[in-house]
Amino acid sequence: MEVPEVPGVFTQGRDLVEVEETAREAIALMTGTPIAEIAIRIEDHRYRIA
Predict the structure, then answer these.
(1) Helix, strand, or coil here: 5?
(2) Is the pTM value of this prediction over 0.70?
């Protein structure tokens, strides 16, 4: 199931583990959804071959 972006939510982290944690926390706060019910997928395109 694909979930749309949450407008107005911005986070950052020092590594991909922090990114996932802070993103889940921000989404939980903005939507009122329990953090345990939030799953995200991180796509890293920095090294994508053109």
Answers:
(1) coil
(2) no
Distance CA 8, CA 11 (A): 10
Higher pLDDT, 50 or 18: 18
- Number of neighbouring beta carbons within 10 Å of residue 23: 19
Separation CA 15–CA 28 (nearest Å): 20
The total of other beta-carbon atoms located within 10 Å of residue 28's CB is 15
Q: How far apart are CA 2 and CA 16, in angstroms?
A: 20
The answer to whether 33 and 40 are in contact (CB under 8 A) is no
38: exposed, middle or buried (Cβ count in 10 Å: 0-12, 13-18, 19+): middle
